[in-house]
Each structure stands twice: as C-alpha cells, then as structure tokens.
Specification:
By secondary structure, the protein is an alpha/beta fold. The protein has a 6-stranded mixed sheet, with helices on both faces. A two-stranded antiparallel ribbon has the order 1-2. Helix 1 packs parallel to helix 2, helix 2 packs across helix 3 and helix 5 runs antiparallel to helix 6. It is globular.
Length: about 220
C-alpha cells in the first residue's frame, strides 16, 4: 500500500495462491455450524461461493468486500450481498456497490440485516431494522498512517459482538481499535491491555458496564492455571 502525505492510498496486489481459493468450502474444514463467517476480500468466485454456502446451510455471514469492491462486477455483487447478517463497507465502497448493482441504499437494507459504513474521520454509521446509530471517531494522538484501520475496526466490532455486546458498543469498540492502528506505522504494531483499552473507551464514550463484564471474564480465564 502506497500512502502519500495526505493519507491517500493506492494498493497493488499479486493474487498468488488466492487464485485457488474457489476450490475450498466451509464444509471441507468442518466449519458448517459456526456462529459467523466473515467473507473478506478473496478470489471473487470464492467470495460468491462462500456467501452461497452460508445461505444454503443457514450460517450467518458478514460480507466485507473491501479492496475487491472495485474488481467485483454488478452480477457478482448481486449474487453475494443478499442474505448477509452484516454488510461492512466504507463510504466509497458503498457508492460503488450502489452504482454497479443499480440498488439504492434502501434496497440494500432490504437485502441485509445490518449495514455498517465507516467514514474515516467522520466516524461510522450502523443501520439495523430501521434504526441508525452514529459512531464518532476517536481522534488519534498522533496520526501516523491509516493502513489497517478498517481491519482493526472490524476486529473490534466482531470481538464485541461475539462477547454479546450491543451494536452501538461494538461500533465504539471498533472505532477505538482503529485509532490504535492510526497511531502506529504499520498494520499490527500497536499494543494495548484490556484495562488501558477500557479506560480510554470511557474517557471518550463514557462508562460501559458491558465492557467491565467482559473484562471480568477475561481476567478469570487468565487466572486459571
């Protein structure tokens, strides 16, 4: 990923082994009864296959086309998006999906359970069942470079959801996770402890009892021999 001084980015990529991803299924790996499958950027046919396999087997899935949004055509998107538990995109990717599929935002919301749109410094928006939640961004200190921030948001979001936390809290956890990436050079050079994370969350968003409950469970697991 090449990034200029204004944080604009251009990505280049060699497919390599990813070209063979279409040959594999969730069932091959015994993953046909999991809580959630995240369909991330991959070989386009593999992405369509995974989405279809999830729909067919009744496994909830999140569709996260990310960098492949520009490569997927309208038919591929129309075959992949419907039925997703979550559609996770940034503002630009949502506009591309709407243009390629011919769907309006309202039509997309009829095809997925939850739409999560990240908007960089403007925060993110979560829409589910007609309710819209606006999640503010956490200003980085300092701002170093943005590569990997979207992935960190997703990681925090789904970690919070898997812990049983509600959508607004998951969005705020995702927002804070992404800020840690913005403050470091590289995608995975950041570090934080649970107590530090909760403290910073509360300074920005206020107290959240749900996070403390998760913290107690984490500490209890760590305390076991």
């Amino acid at each position: 990923v090449s990034t200029d001084l204004d944080q604009n980015q251009i990505a280049s990529f060699y497919t390599g082994a990813m070209a063979h991803a279409r040959r594999f299924t969730l069932a091959d790996r015994g993953l046909d009864s999991v809580d959630l499958v995240i369909v991330s950027p991959n070989d386009p046919i593999a992405m369509m296959n995974l989405a279809e396999e999830c729909r067919r087997s009744g496994v909830p899935f999140a569709y996260d086309p990310s960098q492949q949004t520009a490569r997927l055509d309208g038919d591929e998107l129309r075959r992949s998006v419907p039925g997703a538990r979550y559609l996770m995109v940034n503002e630009y990717e949502l506009a591309i999906i709407m243009k390629k599929t011919g769907w309006s935002k309202e039509e997309i919301l009829e095809k997925v359970d939850c739409l999560v749109v990240t908007n960089g410094a403007k925060g993110s928006t979560i829409i589910e069942a007609g309710d819209t939640v606006l999640i503010p961004a956490v200003v980085p200190d300092p701002m170093v470079e943005p590569t990997g921030a979207g992935d960190a948001y997703r990681g925090g979001f789904f970690a919070a959801r898997s812990a049983g936390l509600p959508l607004p809290v998951a969005g705020r956890v995702g927002a804070l996770c992404s800020t840690y990436v913005l403050e470091e050079l590289g995608t995975s050079n950041h570090r934080f402890g649970f107590d530090e994370f909760v403290g910073r969350y509360e300074r920005h968003f206020g107290p959240e009892p749900g996070l403390e409950a998760v913290g107690r469970r984490v500490r209890a697991r760590l305390a076991k021999p």
